[in-house]
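We treat protein structure as text, and this decision shapes the records that our systems exchange. Such a record has a labelled line for the sequence and another for the backbone structure tokens. The record that follows is passed on verbatim for readers who wish to inspect the format:
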Amino acid sequence: MRDMPKERATRSLKWILLRLRPILRLLKVFRGSPQAIAGGFSLGLFLALTPTVGLQIILAVFLATFFKVSRPAALISVMVTNPVTIPPIFTFNYWVGSFFFDGPSVGEVYRHFLKIAAEMAKLNFWEVGSQLKAFTDTGQDMLIPLLWGSMVVATISGILSYTLLARFLWFLKLHRDRKKTLKEQRQAAKDKSTEN
């Protein structure tokens, strides 16, 4: 007998959730409402996609505290940007920004970001000034499209991640509450049957 589309979709969702289990367990330990956790994650992702390398962690902690969202979620998501991911992320952001402003070719920009990433890989984590200098040395013809593209990509990513993660965390919370209520009802029924 052929699978019904709904059954296939249910199996696919279960498969996805099983693969995401480690991440889900991590999300469960964060304290706060689903909005606060999703807000922290989205804030960190927004910062990770902007060329604020060197200041991202400091900004994430400060802004998460200011906006009263989850600092751990912000810190985890801000780690998206690292020496390995800088070239593809910022080249893509530059490509988006190049639709608004002219600048060097995308290949040239990618090679430039590879050099920056190689420099950053050699630096100590706490050498914030050197990390910032690597980006500020980028020419204005490259920096303006990068900034515009980063703002567009970061804003869209932040909004999408907040929307999806907040809904998902609410689902987890409702599922956990429903499970707890059923357990309490079973225990109450069991206690009642032992009294009689």
The CA atoms of residues 33 and 169 lie 9 Å apart. The mean pLDDT is 84.
